[in-house]
Design brief:
The protein is of the alpha+beta class and about 200 residues long. The chain has helices at about 1-10, 30-40, 55-60, 60-70, 85-95, 100-115, 170-180, and strands at about 20-25, 45-50, 75-80, 120-125, 130-135, 140-145, 155-160, 185. An 8-stranded mixed β-sheet has the order 1-7-6-5-2-3-4-8, with helices on both faces. A hairpin with a 2-residue loop joins strand 5 (about 130-135) and strand 6 (about 140-145). Helix 4 (about 60-70) crosses helix 6. The termini are far apart.
């Protein structure tokens, strides 16, 4: 009687099998994991963080890697906050840090400007994900729900891997797709990634 209970606790068989790792802080998630997920992705890289700023700091030659991935046929998408929106201003007041959200978004925009000519790289503004970041790497994902008065690196972080239809992974994908479809292009005249 005890063995099945112990086995169930040790072996994930339900929806929780999609949870690979949990980190109390995004800053505790190893940079090597991010690099591995980025490098190994073949079909899809989606960065739906409100600023995505930290990626340019923590991943060496990040822009070049994204260009290489896009050239190999991987779809690369960025969903970011509008630096001039009321939502951004409101979150800046909530965070109350010297390096504002709008500044961090503008750094990402400047870095994206350098790679926007690559076919397969697209960026949109979103007004609906200020408190949740979702980063997709094919069938792996990192999710960070932001807590009140905290910046992104202080957010709890989940590493998910898709194992079932309509599980946690698919639900976050649906959320990001809805935001993407409602988003507005970052680059003037951009239609489906072609500026």
């Amino acid at each position: 009687m005890l063995w099945p209970v112990a086995a169930k606790k040790a072996i994930k068989v339900g929806p929780d099998r999609e949870v690979v790792s949990v980190y109390p802080y995004r800053s505790g998630c190893p940079a090597s994991l991010w690099r591995s997920l980025i490098t190994n992705a073949k079909r899809e890289l989606t960065f739906a963080g409100y600023t995505n700023y930290f990626l340019w700091l923590e991943q060496s030659r990040f822009g070049k890697e994204l260009g290489r991935k896009a050239a190999q046929g991987c779809r690369v998408r960025f969903l970011i906050g509008d630096p001039d929106s009321e939502l951004t201003r409101s979150r800046e007041q909530d965070e109350d840090v010297a390096l504002t959200l709008s500044t961090r978004i503008r750094v990402t925009l400047a870095e994206l400007e350098k790679i926007k000519g690559h076919s397969g790289i697209d960026a949109r503004y979103s007004g609906g994900h200020a408190h949740l970041s979702v980063f997709r790497f094919d069938d792996d994902m990192i999710v960070t729900p932001l807590l009140t008065h905290n910046v992104g690196h202080d957010a709890p972080t989940l590493h998910l891997r898709r194992h079932q239809d309509d599980g946690m992974f698919d639900r976050f994908v649906s959320h990001v797709e809805e935001l993407w479809n409602r988003g507005t292009p970052v680059w003037e005249g951009d239609v489906d990634g072609q500026a």
